[in-house]
Amino acid sequence: MRTIYVQLPQGGYPIHIGSGLYSQLPNFIHDLGWDEHRPLMVIADSHVAPLYGEKVVQPLDEAGYQVSLVTFPAGEHSKSSSTLEKLTEECIRAGLDRNGAILALGGGVTGDLAGFLAASYMRGIPFIQLPTTLLAHDSSVGGKVGINHSLGKNMLGAFHQPSLVVFDTDTLITLPRREVVSGFAEVVKHALIYDDSFAKWLLDHHVQLNDLHSEYIAEAIARGCQVKADVVALDEREHGLRAILNYGHTMGHALEAISDYTYAHGEAVSIGMVGASLLGEKLRTARNVHHYTKEILAAFSLPTSFSGPWSNKQLVELMRRDKKALGGSLTFVLPKGIGEVVIQHDVQEEVVSEVLQELRGGVE
Ligand SMILES: NC(=O)c1ccc[n+]([C@@H]2O[C@H](COP(=O)([O-])OP(=O)(O)OC[C@H]3O[C@@H](n4cnc5c(N)ncnc54)[C@H](O)[C@@H]3O)[C@@H](O)[C@H]2O)c1
Ligand SMILES: O=C(O)C(=O)C[C@@H](O)[C@H](O)[C@H](O)COP(=O)(O)O
Ligand SMILES: [Zn+2]
Question: Record's GO cellular component, any one (predicted)?
Answer without folding.
Answer: cytoplasm
